[in-house]
Specification:
This protein is an alpha/beta fold. It has one domain: 3-Layer(aba) Sandwich (Uracil-DNA Glycosylase, subunit E), CATH 3.40.470.10. The chain has helices at 4-13, 25-28, 31-44, 58-62, 99-112, 123-126, 153-166, 177-180, 213-223; strands at residues 49-50, 70-74, 130-134, 139-140, 171-175, 192-196. The strands form two sheets. A four-stranded parallel beta sheet has the order 3-2-5-6, with helices on both faces. It has a two-stranded antiparallel sheet with strand order 1-4. Helix 8 links the parallel strand 5 and strand 6 (192-196). Helix 1 (4-13) runs antiparallel to helix 3 (31-44). The longest helix is centred in the N-terminal third of the chain and has 14 residues, at 31-44. It is found in: Cytoplasm. Excises uracil residues from the DNA which can arise as a result of misincorporation of dUMP residues by DNA polymerase or due to deamination of cytosine. It holds the Pfam family UDG. One of its GO terms (molecular function) is uracil DNA N-glycosylase activity. It comes from Microvirga aerilata.
């Protein structure tokens, strides 16, 4: 019997906006089913997997490949129940914003002259063509990085390659060492790559703040004749 993540995968396959993503080898060669089955085994063992199964594929559900104009690559979901909902860095918890997200939003506010948002829910970005994808789509409660070797990373890599090949002009915001390694997958003759250090407070180089990725991304999109992203999370 299929487990909850396998069922979520089947539901994603039926989504109208999934058509472009389903052309990736990850969804064609059985990899997606194999990874989902592996996660379902963890669920059957009694461990709590995050985000909830119905939110595992939120990033590729909310942002069809043909709508992508900005890519933000994260690592894996927040390991605290209630915090993650399937979008990289996005937060729906009830406590203080996670440190990395707080740094990102502080940079956004300073860069664009907006007030610092109280919300950490980045759904509005995703609906505007900002792909917020993690290199692992699942994690176990209290165990950050637990599913990094489950095979999810093939999806992130193939997504970046496909976007680079298919889309005419995309901004790739690559923050931190693991994300920056993916720069090699991007055709820089077509796309803009903005690299920076990770927004985590554990980043001793502190080379994220002041990089102004949001205004730079929008200026480039406008130059290419595309709609800029409204990065504000609140009216």
């Amino acid at each position: 019997m299929n487990g909850p993540v396998s069922r979520a995968l089947a539901d994603f396959r039926a989504e109208p906006g999934a058509k472009g993503w389903l052309k990736l080898p990850f969804f064609q060669d059985g990899s997606a089913e194999a990874v989902a089955a592996k996660v379902d085994e963890v669920v059957r063992s009694g461990a709590q997997v995050l985000p909830p199964p119905e939110a595992v594929f939120t990033s590729v559900t909310l942002t069809p490949v043909e709508t992508v104009k900005v890519v933000v690559l994260g690592q894996d979901p927040y390991p605290t129940p209630g915090d993650s909902h399937g979008l990289a860095f996005s937060y729906r918890g009830s406590r203080r914003l996670p440190a990395s997200l707080r740094t990102i939003l502080a940079e956004m506010a300073e860069d664009l002259g907006h007030p610092m948002p109280k919300s950490g829910d980045l759904t509005k970005w995703a609906k505007q063509g900002v792909l917020l994808i993690n290199t692992a789509l699942t994690v176990e409660a209290g165990q950050s990085g637990a599913h990094m070797k489950f095979g999810w990373s093939a999806l992130a890599d193939q997504a970046i390659e496909a976007i680079s090949q298919r889309q005419p002009a995309v901004v790739f915001l690559l923050w931190g060492g693991p994300a920056r390694k993916r720069a090699a997958l991007v055709d820089r003759s077509k796309h803009l790559v903005i690299e920076a250090g990770h927004p985590s407070p554990l980043n001793r180089l502190n080379d994220f703040r002041g990089t102004r990725p949001f205004s730079r991304a929008n200026a480039w999109l406008v130059e290419k004749g595309l709609e800029p992203v409204d990065w504000r999370l609140e009216p």
